[in-house]
Structures are given as C-alpha cells and as structure tokens.
UniProtKB/TrEMBL annotation, chain A:
<dbReference type="InterPro" id="IPR012675">
    <property type="entry name" value="Beta-grasp_dom_sf"/>
</dbReference>
<dbReference type="InterPro" id="IPR036010">
    <property type="entry name" value="2Fe-2S_ferredoxin-like_sf"/>
</dbReference>
<dbReference type="InterPro" id="IPR001041">
    <property type="entry name" value="2Fe-2S_ferredoxin-type"/>
</dbReference>
<keyword id="KW-0001">2Fe-2S</keyword>
<keyword id="KW-0411">Iron-sulfur</keyword>
<dbReference type="InterPro" id="IPR006058">
    <property type="entry name" value="2Fe2S_fd_BS"/>
</dbReference>
<feature type="domain" description="2Fe-2S ferredoxin-type">
    <location>
        <begin position="10"/>
        <end position="86"/>
    </location>
</feature>
TrEMBL record, chain B:
<dbReference type="Pfam" id="PF00941">
    <property type="entry name" value="FAD_binding_5"/>
</dbReference>
<feature type="domain" description="FAD-binding PCMH-type">
    <location>
        <begin position="1"/>
        <end position="177"/>
    </location>
</feature>
<dbReference type="InterPro" id="IPR016167">
    <property type="entry name" value="FAD-bd_PCMH_sub1"/>
</dbReference>
<dbReference type="InterPro" id="IPR036683">
    <property type="entry name" value="CO_DH_flav_C_dom_sf"/>
</dbReference>
<dbReference type="GO" id="GO:0016491">
    <property type="term" value="F:oxidoreductase activity"/>
</dbReference>
<dbReference type="InterPro" id="IPR002346">
    <property type="entry name" value="Mopterin_DH_FAD-bd"/>
</dbReference>
<keyword id="KW-0560">Oxidoreductase</keyword>
From TrEMBL, chain C:
<dbReference type="InterPro" id="IPR010419">
    <property type="entry name" value="CO_DH_gsu"/>
</dbReference>
<keyword id="KW-0560">Oxidoreductase</keyword>
<dbReference type="Pfam" id="PF20256">
    <property type="entry name" value="MoCoBD_2"/>
</dbReference>
<dbReference type="Pfam" id="PF02738">
    <property type="entry name" value="MoCoBD_1"/>
</dbReference>
<keyword id="KW-0500">Molybdenum</keyword>
<dbReference type="GO" id="GO:0016491">
    <property type="term" value="F:oxidoreductase activity"/>
</dbReference>
<protein>
    <submittedName>
        <fullName>Carbon monoxide dehydrogenase</fullName>
    </submittedName>
</protein>
Length: 172, 271, 1002
C-alpha cells in the first residue's frame, strides 16, 4: 500500500512510447498535465477536462484512456503510448497518419492526436472495420473543423492498407 | 479546472481499501475507472481528502460464473465484461445495454461497479441490475452484507452504501428461457439516456424497467397484458415515474417514450 | 458511399504540368500536427517564473457586488496577486463600445455582475491548481437583481435595466428604407409574414482561449502572446484599454491555433485582463481558459428575434421585404458588436432580386454572455427568417417552394448586381447553379422517396435554400449603425487592407509572410501553391509564415482570419506581392540573359527565355543577387530582398448618404436541398440526403474547399439539431459542459453531397471568393424547411429538439389514470422547484414548535455543521458542509423566519452561496394536532438553485434538490418520532440543506 500525501510531490515513472520516463507530481496532478508540462510531450491535447472531447485520449497498458480523467500517480509503472510514438521515424509518417494527410482528415489538428490514438489502438485488433464501427469508435471524439467524414475515409483507407501489408508480410 | 488537493492511496489489497475507508469515512472516495469521479474532481464538485485506487487489486478483477449467477468484481471494467466470452449467453440483457454506456474510450476504463456506485438515474448499468434483480456485495472493515438491487438505489446519486463500505462486487442472475429487449433514447449516441427501457419475459408475464426519469431505475411486473390494458398500465407507469423537464427533453416527451417504447419492447419479448 | 464521394474531390493531386493553384496537394501543416509536434499556445514554453491565472466568475446573472474579501486567498502560499475590478480599473480603462452611448465595458465586473460567468476576480499563483484553491477562498457578497434573458422581454417596460446608458436595454435603433416599400406593400396582392427566433449557439473550437502576457514597467510596454484570430482593429481596442500607444502593445500569435470559427476574436477582453494581472503581479502571467469557462463566458453568436414580411405577387415574385430585427448582444456591447447585425446589411435580399426594402434594427442587452464573431456571422440569423418565409410563401400560394426560389433569383445577366441595400454582387449564375444541383443532386429521386415514405405513413420532408455568401468584409459596414450625420463626424471607415510579404534570402529561397492567422485552414499550403506558380517553383520551395507579431510584421486593422477573407483577399495579395518581385527578377534575368523582359518566363526552378528555353538561369541565382551583388543589378530593377504588398479593393466604399453599403467584396452562391425523415416514436431528425451546391469563384485547393464546406455543414447541423446556449428565466446558464452543450459527433454527421460551379470573382486577384461560412447560413434553415415539410407545421424553432417537435405534432396527451399523480403545469424556463408534503410527528404542536425554532440543536442534526450564529431570534447564519452522493461542498447559509404563528405555522426564507453557485428557498410549515398526542406537519416549498452548478449539473440538479428536501422531511419524521436525545430538527436545517445542496464552498 502506498499513500501519497496531498501537498508533496512524488516521483512517477512509466514507459512512454517505449522509453522510460520519470517526473514528479502531486497526487492531484492530471496525467494530461504531467505528460504535457512535466515531460514536454505536448502532442496530447486538452480540450475539456471532463472526458467529453477525446483530445487527450492515449493508450495506457493497452487501454484507451482519457488522460484528463487519469492521475499521473495512477500510471506509475505503466506502459503509455501517445501520438509522439506513432510515426516509424521522425521524418516519416505511419500508414494511418499518411491516410489522414492524404484525405485532409485534419484542419487545425487539435483533435487529431486523440483520434489517431483511438484508431491506432482499434485497428490493431480490428483489421477490417466497417464504416459503422469506425463511426461508433470515433463518437467518443469531438472535431469541430472537418465534419468527420474525411476522418472516416482515412480510417477505412488505412485499415485496408494495413491489412494488405499484413497480408503481404504473412504471405512472404 | 484542476482537482482540489487529496492524498492518494494505491491499495494492493481489499484490506488496504477497507482500512482507508475506515480511517477517512466520508472524506475518502474509492477511485475505480475514474470516468465519473475524475470529472467531478476536475470540476471541484467533490472534495475528498483521500482517494483510494482499487484498480491494482487482482482479486477484484474477476468475472465468475457461480451456479445461476455471474459475480462481477469491483475491478472489472465495462470493456472487460463486454469482451467476456460468455456474456451473450449468460447475461443477454447486459450484452444489449452495456454498449450504450458512454464510448469505447470510457468503457475501456470505467467499471461496472463504479457505475452502480455513482447511481446516475440515467445510467444503463443500474437499470440492468434492477431489471435483472441482482445483488450488490458491500463490505466494510467489520462486516459484509448483500443488498438486493431494488433496495440499493436510494435516490439520485444515492445508494444504500455507507461511506466506509466498498462495493466488492455484484451478482447478476442467469435467467434461462426468457427473452430480453433494451432500447434507449439519448440526444446523441453515447449520451446519458433521456429514457432507457429494458424488458424481459417473466414466468408470469413481463417486466419493464425504466431509467432516466425517476430518481432511481424503476421496475414493474405485469401479467401478460394486451391491448388497452397494456396501454393503461404503461400510461399509469409513465405518470408514476414523475418525469420532469430539462434542457434535453420535456416530461411529456419522456412519458411518450415510456408508452411507446414500453409497448414495443413488451411486444418484442412476448412474441 | 462516403468513400466514393470524398475521394472524387478530395484525394491528393500529385502530378501533371498544371499550375499548383487548383490542386489538392498535401498540406505542409500536416506532418507536424499528425505526429504531436504542433505548436499551439499551451505547447510553447514560457519565461521562467511565469505565473498562472484563474478567474473567479459570477454565479449570478444580475447582481450588485456588495463586497469582495480576498484576504484569505492572498494569504495562501503560492499566491502572487488577487485582482478585483478596482485593481483592474487602476491600470486600465474601459473597452470602447461600438455605439454612441454613455456606457462602459470592462473585462471584469466593477460593482455589478450582468451575466453568469462574468469575471469577478483574477488570482495569480505559481500554478493553476493553487490559483483555483485560492479562488475558492474569495468571499463575494452579492445582492441579486432581477434578470432578463429574452430580447423582446428586455424591451418590455418594467424589465430590469442592465446599463443606465442603455435606457430600456436598447443599445441602438435604426430604421432604413430602400426604394418604395410602402407602395410595394400597398399594391401587392399578397402579404406574408413570419416571426422567428434564432437561438444562441457557438462554434466552440476544441482548443480554448490562451493568453501569456508580460509588462515592462520601464517602458510601460506590454508583450502578449494569444491565440487571437483578428480582426486586428481589436489591437487598437486593447492598446487603448491598457492605456498605451499601439507601439507599446506587442501582440503575437502562436504558430498553430486549435480552431476558431470567429470565436477566438473574443479572447481580447482576457488579453486586457491578463495583461493587467501581469502588470500588477510584476511577472509574466499565463492563462489557459478551461472548457467550463469557455462555454459559460467566452463568446457566443447573437440570438435574434425577427419579424419579416414580404409583399408578394400572385406568381410568387417577392416585391418588397419588411424586416424588424431585435438583436441580442448579451450583457455588454463588446467590439465589434453590433457588427453581427450589420454584416449582412447589403445582403438583406439574399439571392433574390427585390427592389424595395424596409428595415428596423434594434440592438438590446440581456443578462447573457456578450456576443462576438462566430462562423456565419449574421448570416444564419438572416437566412433563417428569409428562407423560412420563402417556404411559407410557396405554401400560402400553393406553389412549389423551388419555383418560388427560382422566380426570385437574380438574373444571370444582371451581374455585377447592386442590391437594394447596397451590396455589389460580383458575379454568378444562380439559375445554372440551381439546375445543375437539381440534376446532379437527383432531386427527382428524392421526391419519389418522399412520396413513397408518405404513402407508408412515414414523416419525410424536403427542404430548399438559396443563399448568397458574402466574404471579405468592408471594414466600414459597421458604421451603418451610425446615421449619415454621425458618420460624417466620425470620419470615413472602409476597405479591407490585406498585406503580404515575399522575401528572398541570400541563397535565393523564398519566404512568404501574411497576417492571416489561420486556425486550421491550411493557409501555409495554399500560399505556397500561389507563390510557387508565380516563381515557377514547387510549393515545397516556398516557406510560409502566418504568425503575427505586431511589432515587426506588416499588418492593418483588417488583418486576421475572419469574414472568409483568406482566399479572396490574402492569397490574392500574396500573388500580387510575388508578381511584383517576379517583375523585378525578370528585369534582372533579362539583362543577364540578354533578352527582352517580355520574353522571360519562370518555370521549373529557372528563369528562362520563352523563345529559347536553353537560355536560362537558376531561379535561386537571380533571386540571391540583391544580397550578394546589388551593384550588378540593372538600374531600374530595385531591390528584390523583400517586398510587402498592400491591397484593398476599391469596391469597398463607406456607406452612402442613403445608408447603402457594399458590406462585402465577394458573394458566393449556395443552393442546398435535403431530404429528412423524422422517427415517429423518438421524433429524431435523420438526414437522408443533403445536397449542397457551391459557387465560390475560382477554387484554389479543392480538398480544402470541401473541408470548409464539410466543417461548416457539421457545425450548422449542430446548430439545427443539437446546440443551444440555454438560459433559464433567472439567467442561470444551463449548458455548461460538453455533456449539455451537444456538439455533433461522427454518429450524427452524414456526408453532404458537394457540387461545385466556378464563376470567378472579377474583384479579386485570383478570382476566388470566400467559402468557409456558407453552410452555417444555408444548412440550419434548409433542415428546418425539410422538417416543416415533413411535419406539415408552420412554426419551427431551432434547435430541432425532439421533445419540442412532440409539442408541435402530438395531440393531447393521454390523461393520467384516475386517482393517479397529477402533473403540475410548467412554464418553459421556469426552474423553480415547488413541492409539498406532510409528515406525522410525535409530540404535541407546542413541543414540535419549540424544536423547530431551536438553533442550538442545529449542530447535531446537520452533518458537517461548523458554526451557527444567531443574528436575532429569527435570523441565523451557519457554515455547513453538505453533500449528495459524491457531490459535496462547504457553504454559508442565511435563514430568516417570518409570519410566525406559534405553535401553528411559520414561514421561512433563506439562501446560501458559495463558489459553485447559490440556492434560495422559501417555505411554509403548518402544525396541527393529529388527535393522538402527535402533530401533523404540512409543508410546502419553493426553491431555486443557480450558478456554476446549474450549468454543469443541470441534468441532475432538480432531482437532487428534491431528494434532499424529501430526505429532510423523512428524517424529520423519524427524528421527532424517535425522540432523538436533545434532538429533533430545525427549520434552519431544512433550508440549509435545500439551499446549500450545491451551494459550493467557502
Ligand atoms: C464522455 C462520457 C460519457 C459517459 N456516458 C455514460 C453513459 O451514457 N451511461 C453511463 O452509465 N455512464 C456514462 N459515463 C460514466 C461512466 O463511464 C462511468 O464509468 C461510471 O459512471 C463510473 O464508473 P467508474 O469505474 O469510472 O467509477 P469512478 O468514476 O471511479 O467512480 C464513480 C463513483 O463511484 C464510487 N465508486 C466506484 N467504485 C466503487 C466501489 N467499488 N465501491 C464504492 N464506491 C465506488 C467512487 O468513489 C465515485 O464516487 C460517461 C462518462 C464519460 C466520461
Ligand atoms: S480533454 Fe480529456 S476528454 Fe477532453
Ligand atoms: S481538426 Fe480542428 S478540431 Fe478536429
């Protein structure tokens, strides 16, 4: 049993996109703030702090998670994946990201990180989603710029591409 | 919109939780999936002195078939239950209702028991618990008790749980040979229900449970009713629920939904 | 289906020799945004020691501030400063108000609050959480005033007055007359009229406001970084308020901004507030607005009550219009309001050829959030009235609504066409657009579907709208609110200065800067296309910067991202700037290549001779020459290092003596139609097909144009079906979270079928017109028309909440069963809770009476009661902690007893206030012997709760209040019945519980 006192800062360690990171947080510090302001991982955005907009969505231990409804202290020792971990390298985009760019599935890009995380997580276990399934998944995100349909197109296109490249690797 | 200050206790065992609750009582809050509690903390609607995180306690994570019932631990997330392979066979009503709880991104964290503890009158899981006639397992440092679904919900966001009690889990009966139906109307997909209805066939007739109107999910058992007798029964029920107006719906609209959806669902399970 | 439709116009265009403009190239913005490397305001580092601000806001819609006690807050460790209105007043002056009236407009309440969410104090501390801790310790005493939230109600005599300088809440009134409307009405065979209310909503960007400000006391200069979007005319407003000349207010914008849609214009009062806080604290201060603040108090579009009448010929031709508009600008008239009302002034006849127009415009203030820019800006309000009326005319005359639209459209040969109210419509072919849309959008099929659905008893309807979408605002349109005489005195105001700078560096690479402040519209990409075409380069060779720094960049009051001015004005100006540089480069190249200037062409990275393409020189070489060897330039060439172009269209003249105003430069055309089906049980509106035809002139980037259309469509769909800033009659704000203010999601927004036609604008350098706002104007009314058609009703109110439709289409409700619960009639907007009940209590009335009035027992019966002060025998105060379920809070309550009739009856009244809001209640209790040594206690109450908690807990609030009341009386009966030692209860406990339920903390 660990009891962290309210008024002091406590060390929090976890794996962020495969690298171990560490910082200090009061018990009340939200994971979204910890990522952004302690670790400088500002790709995860904050749009509502009540779980409704989805901008802060990340993956914690394989679970889609609203970073704004999670305390930094809660994820000590966990594995976290954020938008910064999506691209295969700094100068290349992943398949999903490319599909977003091709289809103009983002405008201001503020909602985008959360949406990418939901899709990245979902497509990994559902390689052949229907449009209805993607719409259901993304109903947990708000985007004010795009009207959503290009996002759905990008998601379906990426799914098809990922599936066919998987096919190729397994054929080989 | 930042939470007030509190201590954080990462419980490793049920004993840790009960000890924390015993010490702090009403100033402690169990932190489960955080999908309701954290939002309330961010809005500073609640000001606990201690949060007790129960999500690392392995023994609370079980979904177990025990005879004619399924026992679900406090650490079971909504997504875990949805992914449980026996769900449709053992708890078809839950399989129908659970996808209506929030979104994929909130079900992945939110727990079944957290939803019951929170007791939002529009929430789907309390409605399901009441419709099926399940039980809630409560435990404090000294004793354990079981509370029947119908006695658990005391009012809007109020339950029979004492401040120092943990909901250890719940039990839902496996009802064989019945038929189930569920329908919900919300402004948008994933919103809390304006009206949610669950119906099931009972040995003597039919049961209808309605959420979203009264302060607690409410159940009626009827013999096989048809025609105007059914209409009258639904109409009386609709009025008894004491519907109110809010920004999303009027009382009359809510009653209309009970009358119309109630009829549809009853037709479905009795056909 | 989505896929096919999206792909056709949207996928990226890679190949070919064609110009870059007009192609859907990939956006340069995207790689960073897709990998978490965006640079939004909250992503940028701040100076070490920067403090964080939070704002304490009013829970009341209208109240006097009696006192503010900040001592406890100031004492909290980590707190650097607490500012109240007085402190802000000491270092700033009022914001200018857009009409001539003796009123002030402060970014923080002075001695009175006028809307829920109005700033009352600013706390500056080492971090945001601590600042919020301190804000909870501020004790504000209010004396509530009556509130008014309805624009027509605000004009009624006896309505509470918000500002003495706006008698009767009327901030401005003007009447206009164009042609001979009286005669047209007198002569016309038909007159149709409609009363509409356009609701309040907001485009609600996902990124909220942010400001980082610092003050240099030595130079008395401010430096501000804010995700402000323009117009930069507001820079003058801010500088004035901060009491510095413009050159001492350096205003910068971050590289990325998370959407705006007009809304981020409204950050400016907070720039003043946070800058003042930085000055007082002596340190840089950062403030990031949270979502609750944004919903309650950022900015919203105006709501409007309109009566519109038309004089109509027998064939449906509209001969004259008579507008009566009452615009609700909320609690303060903030710059640039009342611009929402005047932005459309030249376009009050829509897409129609109507010669005679009468307009009465009134601007009122109400106890709601002040309004400001929002996508569509005045268009949705106007077209909702006009296009609903067109449908009503058709029904009234037994004509097809589409025929009435066609009969009135401006003739294709009439362009440029001067509208009755002064707009010069640049170009278009509306008839052609309609007929193409009807064919390509398969209207006939939709009609067949409607017939079939109706035959099956389903509710299916079709709606139409024709809309002219103005863009590139004339900075002078707002002066139409003044009379011609007032305008003469104030001096002319007009135009739409755009600026663009093209720079060449020593290696000849090209940089472009514009003052356009994009919020996601991909300006950098489009400009790289435009300039690449001029220089014969590729877009990737052009680096574009769209941040603004008012200390260093070329800008003017028209700069910024609003009024859909980018494609038409800014991109065009960039083209002109590049062409000017290219002209000089051509001269240099001509002298180097020994050819005539007219023979020079820019292509594929070279400057070459047209006749002899082998005779060429690398672009970068020519481009760099000004740096390395200015002496070798031809004499007449001039420098080619950096060129800033200013452009304003001559068509944008000030209003004339007769109040005719060309309010915008360009006018796109939109024709929409849609089929909707309404579920008979839930009355939810489902869009079956939505067709939207756009003629926005030359299309610069098809993917982005469609992106604007889809985005606008989704927001408009929200406005039509889900979104409303709802206020209760008492001014409580009811939609304070994203679970209450409902933005459409993926499961609500279908793909619109987009059809294009291109009629270039003769007035803009690229032939482009604005496109971003049109669907916000056309879609709400198109859906409303379809729903009206489906339901066969005349009056449609937005948003189309199913429960409201139920009232329109459903007959009398089945009555409650005999002897069953009766339903209390409720008035809409009345949020007071009323109830009554009774309990049997042990003890004779005298005993119960003594117990009721004994405050000493209070501490033992109210959980968490900290202190009771007895002010008089019948007046008490207490500090109490109470909660319901997970909600809990501390509050201070105040209770008075009156009309005492011992031991038979007593009335009580009380209230509680705290950071989360306030509650008040009144009740009467009567005691009567039950004939068996007991007492029958009867009670009735009337309670209300408001403030922050009403905004964020609205869905649960009333029920929760009732729970508390009922609980109390149950407990009462139990306690009295069980004769708890020293116990019983007190009236005080009742009121304290009711009022304090969500009364917040102290
Ligand atoms: C965007 C969004 C949409 C949502 N939509 C819906 C919806 O449509 N329907 C719906 O039903 N819900 C909805 N929810 C809420 C739902 O997701 C929550 O999961 C649920 O209400 C609470 O479960 P939790 O595990 O997250 O509990 P927490 O948030 O951790 O806790 C909630 C409350 O229960 C108490 N608690 C939790 N577990 C226990 C326990 N074992 N013993 C004692 N007390 C306990 C906590 O102390 C707290 O007071 C939504 C939430 C979000 C963010
Ligand atoms: S910021 Fe977390 S869901 Fe909106
Ligand atoms: S791209 Fe701007 S909110 Fe989604």
């Amino acid at each position: 049993m660990t009891r962290l006192k309210a008024d002091s800062r406590h060390s929090v360690r976890f794996s962020l996109n495969g690298k171990s990171v560490e910082g200090e947080a009061e018990p009340r510090m939200l994971l979204s703030d910890f990522l952004r302001h302690q670790l400088g991982a500002t790709g995860t955005h904050v749009g509502c702090e009540h779980g409704a907009c989805g901008a802060c969505t990340i993956v914690v231990d394989g679970m889609l998670t609203r970073a704004c409804l999670t305390l930094a202290a809660q994820v000590d020792g966990c594995e976290i994946k954020t938008v910064e971990g999506l691209a295969p390298s700094a100068d290349r985009l992943g398949v999903l990201q490319q599909a977003f760019r091709r289809n103009h599935a983002l405008q201001c890009g503020f909602c985008t990180a959360g949406i990418l995380m939901s899709l990245d997580h979902y497509l990994a276990s559902n390689p052949a989603p229907t449009e209805a399934e993607i719409r259901d998944l993304l109903s947990g995100h708000l985007c004010r710029c795009t009207g959503y349909t290009p996002i759905i197109t990008a998601a379906l296109e990426a799914a098809a591409k990922l599936a066919s490249s998987k096919q190729e690797t397994s054929d080989a | 919109m930042k939470p007030p200050a509190f201590d954080y206790l990462r419980a490793e065992s049920i004993g840790d939780v009960l000890e924390g609750l015993a010490q702090q009582g009403g100033d402690a809050r169990v932190l489960a999936g955080g999908q309701s509690l954290m939002a309330m903390l961010n809005m500073r609607l609640a000001k606990p002195k201690l949060l007790i995180d129960i999500m690392r306690i392995g023994e609370l994570r079980q979904i177990e078939r025990k005879g004619d019932a399924v026992v679900i631990g406090a650490g079971v997330r909504q997504a875990d239950l949805l992914a449980w392979s026996d769900l449709t066979e053992a708890l078809p009503l839950v399989a129908l209702a659970l996808p209506w709880v929030g979104h994929m991104q909130t079900r992945s964290r939110g727990t079944i028991c957290g939803s019951l503890a929170h007791a939002d009158p529009s929430a789907e899981m309390p409605l399901t618990l009441v419709a099926l006639g399940g039980e809630v397992f409560l435990r404090d440092a000294k004793r354990r008790r079981r509370v029947a679904a119908k006695d658990f919900f005391a009012g809007m966001m109020l339950t029979a749980r004492a401040d120092d009690e943990l909901i250890e889990g719940i039990s839902l009966p496996v009802i064989k040979g019945s038929r189930f139906a569920f329908r919900e109307v919300a402004r948008r997909h994933g919103d809390f229900a304006i009206v949610a209805c669950a119906a099931l066939k009972t040995p003597t007739g039919v049961r209808l449970a309605v959420g979203g109107i009264a302060d607690v999910p409410t159940v009626r058992d009827w013999p096989r009713l048809e025609g105007s007798a059914l209409d009258d029964a639904l109409n009386a029920f609709a009025y008894e629920l004491g519907a109110r107006d809010d920004v999303h719906a009027t009382a009359r609209y809510r009653r209309d939904l009970v009358r119309m959806i109630g009829r549809d669902l009853i037709g479905e399970v009795l056909q | 289906m989505v896929q096919a439709a999206v792909q056709s116009a949207n996928s990226v265009d890679q190949g070919g020799e064609r110009p870059w403009v007009g192609r859907s190239i990939e956006r340069v913005e995207d790689a960073a945004l897709l990998s978490g490397r965006g640079r939004f305001i909250d992503d940028l580092g701040v100076a070490p020691g920067t403090l964080h601000a939070t704002i304490l806001r009013s829970p009341h819609a209208h109240a006097d501030i009696l006192s503010i006690d900040t001592e406890a807050a100031k004492r909290l460790p980590g707190v650097a400063a607490v500012l109240t209105g007085e402190d802000v007043k000491a270092v700033t002056t009022t914001l200018v108000v857009g009409v001539k009236a003796p009123v002030e407009c402060w970014p923080i309440a002075m001695d009175r609050v006028r809307y829920v969410g109005e700033p009352v104090a600013v706390v500056v501390a080492t971090d945001r959480a601590r600042a919020e801790d301190a804000a909870e310790l501020i004790n504000v005493e209010y004396r509530p005033r009556g509130a008014v939230v309805d624009p027509l109600g605000a004009l009624a005599s006896g309505a509470p007055v918000l500002h003495d300088g706006f008698p009767g809440n009327l901030a401005s009134e003007r009447t206009f007359r164009y042609g001979d409307p009286e005669k047209a009405f007198a002569d016309a065979p038909h007159r149709f009229s409609i009363d509409i209310r356009y609701p309040r909503n907001s485009c609600t960007p996902i990124e909220t406001y942010g400001v980082v400000a610092s003050h240099d006391a030595g130079e008395d200069a401010y430096e501000v970084l804010a995700n402000f979007q323009g117009p930069f005319s507001i820079h003058t407003v801010i500088a004035r308020a901060l009491k510095v000349p413009g050159n001492r207010l350096r205003l910068r914008t971050p590289p990325d901004s998370g959407g705006s849609f007009g809304v981020k214009q409204g950050v400016f009062p907070y720039i003043v507030l946070i800058a003042a806080a930085a000055r007082v604290a002596g340190r840089p201060v950062k403030w990031i607005e949270d979502r609750l603040e944004h919903l309650a108090a950022s900015v919203s579009a105006t709501n409007r009550a309109t009566t519109l009448a038309a004089a109509v010929a027998a064939d449906g031709k509209i001969l004259a219009l008579d507008w009566d508009q009452v615009e609700d600008c909320g609690a303060h008239l903030r710059a640039p309001e009342p611009a929402t009302l005047y932005r459309m002034h030249g376009n009050m006849t829509g897409a129609y050829d109507i010669g005679h127009v009468k307009i009465r415009n009134r601007v009122v203030v109400t106890n709601k959030t002040p309004t400001g820019l929002n996508r569509g800006f005045g268009g949705p309000q106007v077209y909702f009235a006009l296009e609903r009326l067109v449908q009503r005319i058709a029904i009234g005359l037994g004509l097809d609504p589409l025929d009435v639209i066609k009969r009135n459209l401006i003739d294709a040969g009439a362009f440029p066409y001067r509208t009755a109210t002064g707009a010069l419509l640049d170009s278009g072919n509306y008839q052609e657009a309609v007929s193409r849309a009807v064919a390509q959008g398969r209207l006939a099929e939709l009609k067949a579907k409607r017939d079939e659905a109706r035959a099956q008893g389903r509710l299916y309807g079709i709606g139409f709208t024709a809309v002219v979408e103005p863009s590139v605002s004339n900075m002078g349109y707002i002066t139409t609110v003044l009379t011609a005489a007032e305008r003469r005195k104030a001096g002319p105001k007009n135009g739409a200065q755009a600026t663009a700078t093209v720079g060449l560096d020593p290696v000849g690479s090209v940089t472009v800067h514009v003052a356009s402040v994009p919020q996601g519209q991909g300006h950098r990409t489009v400009l790289s296309q435009v300039v690449a075409d001029v220089f014969g380069l590729q877009p990737k060779d052009i680096r574009v910067n769209t941040e603004i720094d008012t200390a260093k960049d070329a800008w003017s009051i028209a700069s910024g991202n609003y009024a859909s001015r980018f494609a038409a004005a800014v991109a065009g100006t960039a083209k002109l700037a590049a062409e000017r540089v290219a002209g000089r480069l051509a001269r240099i190249a001509a002298s180097q290549l020994n050819v005539e200037v007219v023979d020079i062409v820019f292509a594929k990275g070279f400057v070459a001779s047209k006749h002899n393409p082998e005779n060429r020189i690398a672009f970068s070489r020519v481009a760099a020459l000004s740096h390395w060897s200015p002496g070798s330039l031809p004499d007449d060439a001039g420098q080619t290092i950096r060129e800033t172009m200013f452009w304003t269209p001559p068509e944008l003249t000030p209003p004339d003596e007769d109040d005719r105003i060309n309010s915008s430069l360009c006018h796109g055309f939109i024709f929409d139609f849609c089929g909707v089906e309404i579920d008979r049980v839930t009355l939810e509106t489902r869009i079956d097909r939505y067709v939207t035809m756009h003629d926005c002139g030359t299309i610069l980037h098809p993917g982005m144009v469609n992106g604007q259309i889809r985005g606008g469509f989704a927001q408009a769909l929200g406005a039509a079906l889900y979104e409303e800033y709802a206020y209760a009659e008492d001014g409580s704000f009811l939609t304070g979270t994203l679970a209450d203010y409902l933005l459409p999601t993926t499961t609500e927004v279908p793909e619109p079928e987009i059809i294009h036609m291109e009629t270039p604008s003769p007035f803009t350098p690229l032939g482009a017109k604005g496109v971003g706002e049109g669907n916000c104007m056309s879609t709400p009314v198109c859906l409303a028309n379809a729903v009206a058609d489906a339901l066969g009703v005349a009056d449609i109110t937005l948003p189309l909440v199913p429960a409201r439709l139920a009232e329109l289409v459903r007959g009398a409700e089945p009555p409650p069963p005999a002897g069953g619960a009766a339903v209390a009639p409720v008035r809409e907007g009345d949020r007071r809770l009323r109830g009554e009940g009774q309990a049997l209590v042990k003890g004779v009335p005298e005993q119960v009476w003594a117990m009721l009035l004994d405050p000493a027992t209070l501490q033992s019966v109210i959980p968490g009661c900290q202190r009771v002060d007895k002010i008089t025998d019948t007046h008490f105060r207490a500090d109490v902690t109470l909660g319901i379920g997970p909600v809990s809070g501390r509050y201070r309550a105040d209770v008075e007893l009156f009309d005492l009739d011992p031991p038979r009856a007593v009335s009580l009244r009380g209230g509680a206030t705290g950071a989360l809001g306030f509650g008040n209640a009144e009740g009467r209790i009567t005691l009567a012997p039950d004939g068996k040594d007991g007492t029958k206690l009867t009670y009735s109450y009337d309670a209300a709760i408001g403030g922050k908690v009403a905004s964020i807990g609205g869905r649960l609030l009333d029920g929760a209040t009732r729970v508390i009341i009922d609980q109390f009386f149950t407990a009462l009966a139990r306690k009295a019945g069980g004769g708890a030692p020293g116990g019983g209860f007190s009236l005080f406990a009742l009121l304290a519980k009711v009022a304090g339920l969500f009364g917040g903390r102290r």
